[in-house]
Design goal:
The chain contains ten helices and 15 strands. It is α+β, with helices and mostly antiparallel strands and about 475 residues long. The strands form four sheets. A six-stranded antiparallel sheet has the order 2-1-6-5-4-3. Strand 1 (about 75-80) and strand 2 (about 85-90) form a beta hairpin. The radius of gyration is 50 Å and the shape is rod-shaped.
Length: about 475
């Protein structure tokens, strides 16, 4: 039971049923009150017409015995004088009970603001009609009535009050009938609402169940190539299915990339480790044949590869630049270019926000790549372009074919002329450079130069100082442009 009512379908059905039930109760109460008020007003209108008809006869001095409308059993009439004493009544009328609230024209005689009754001229009828609910006994039978009271001044008898009633039996019967219909109809209507909601939600949630089953199968099989079914609609469920498939595709790509990364890393590590082991084993057996320089070279290469793999792992884990750090890019470029043969620097001072170590690694990788492919010269430029700084590293080599200009930024990718161990490295430098650039809110692209070489362009947001007051409030922390 808990599981069934814990489902979205059950909760939706219960919620819809409760909302409709509250709405029906409110509507039913309003209908009953409106019906009762309308029927009561109709009874009051009938009673008022009878009272005024009798009052009109009294206004012209008609004797009590000659009054018409006095013997209508359905509309009992009683006439009282100024002090409330009955002076005439219908033939079969035995009693009128208004709950102690019989209204006569002198009930408010002590009210100085009430000029009704005493202000009437002989033969004049009061314009005001007063209504009250009560009961009357006519010919031995008691029933509820709506009474109307009208004042009139008889030319001979003085101030009189006519009480006329109209039965409320029809009103009460109609209200009871309506209440019975509501009590029978409401449960049936609620049952229909619950059933329709249950069926509609089942149909609406059927694709969700299909998505759930497929996701469970994918989890059990670990086959990220499978996709959940996408309904041919344009609703939230269809968007959920599409988003789920996009997530699965991204996850599949990420897992495949990780697998390739592990395989390539294992392959790249295997060569220097095997070479180093061979040299050490030869040196152990024949000390005179130990190639110390080669062992050191392999160790350095292994150390660099391990450092590259560690940096890529940190970048994949989401490591970004330290917030608030400022780096003088021109000074950093000159530092990385110092001591490199054939490298010329043309840089204007500009600061960026980010990690000095990571940005230095980017510049070093770009310079290493440029020197590896340059014939004679490498030119590094730093200039500001609006809210960004452009760092260009150009060489006079053969350039990068247009078809390979994006592929060279992939991990462990080396073009055919850079496959050698000594020349090409592990193919991680440019991948690291682009990842670091993206983490710093920038871009790294490559294009050709007019001379035919390659031009790598690194764009980063400039670190701009806020107004003095704002900077002081932030503790001197710069913001990214």
């Amino acid at each position: 039971m808990r599981r069934r009512f814990g489902s979205v379908r059950a909760r939706a059905t219960l919620g819809a049923t409760l909302v409709v039930a509250v709405a029906l109760l409110a509507a039913g109460a309003a209908v009953l009150l409106s019906l009762r008020s309308s029927l009561t007003d109709q009874a009051g209108g009938r009673a008022e017409r009878t009272a005024r008809a009798v009052a009109a006869q009294l206004a012209v001095g008609t004797p009590y015995a000659d009054l018409s409308s006095m013997d209508d059993d359905e509309r009992p009439v009683r006439i009282v004088d100024a002090v409330g004493r009955p002076v005439a009544a219908g033939e079969d009328l035995e009693r009128i009970d208004t709950g102690g609230s019989d209204i006569t024209v002198d009930d408010d005689a002590d009210d100085p603001d009430d000029d009704s009754g005493d202000g009437l001229e002989p033969g004049e009828i009061d314009d005001e009609t007063r209504f009250t609910d009560g009961s009357a006994t006519v010919d031995g039978e008691s029933a509820d009535y709506r009474f109307a009271s009208v004042g009139v001044r008889d030319p001979a008898k003085g101030l009189l009050t006519v009480h006329a009633g109209a039965p409320l039996e029809a009103e009460q019967s109609a209200v009871r009938t309506a209440l019975t219909a509501l009590l029978i109809g409401f449960p049936l209507l609620l049952a229909v609402v619950a059933g329709v909601t249950w069926l509609v939600t089942r149909r609406a949630l059927r694709p969700v169940e299909g998505i759930r089953r497929e996701m469970a199968a994918i989890t059990a099989s670990a086959d990220l190539g499978r996709r959940v079914p996408e309904p041919d609609t344009h609703d939230e469920v269809a968007r959920l299915a599409r988003t789920t498939n996009e997530t699965l595709a991204a996850l599949e790509t990420s897992v495949e990339r990780q697998r390739r990364f592990v395989a390539d890393a294992s392959h790249e590590l295997r060569s220097p480790i095997a070479s180093l082991r061979t040299q050490l084993e030869v040196g152990a057996a024949h000390p005179g044949l130990l190639d110390v320089a080669g062992a050191v070279e392999d160790t350095v290469r292994l150390q660099r590869l391990a450092a590259d793999l560690l940096l890529l792992a940190r970048l994949d884990a989401g490591e970004g630049p330290v917030e608030g750090a400022r780096v003088d890019l021109a000074a950093l470029v000159r530092k990385e270019a110092a001591g490199r043969a054939g490298v010329r620097v043309d840089a204007e001072p500009v600061e960026v926000a980010g990690s000095r170590g990571q940005l230095g690694r980017v510049l070093a990788n770009l310079l290493d790549n440029a020197q590896r492919h340059a014939r004679s010269a490498v030119v590094v430029t730093v200039r500001r372009e609006g809210a960004r700084v452009l760092v260009g590293v150009a060489d006079d080599g053969d350039g990068v074919p247009e078809a390979d200009r994006e592929r060279i930024f992939e991990r462990f990718v080396r073009l055919d002329d850079a496959r050698g161990r000594d020349d090409g490295g592990a193919g991680l430098g440019l991948a690291i450079a682009r990842d670091v650039a993206v983490r710093h809110g920038g871009t790294l692209t490559v294009r050709g130069t007019p001379a035919g070489g390659a031009l790598f362009e690194l764009r980063l947001p400039v670190c701009q100082d806020p107004p003095t007051g704002v900077r002081a409030a932030r503790g001197g922390v710069p913001r990214w442009a």
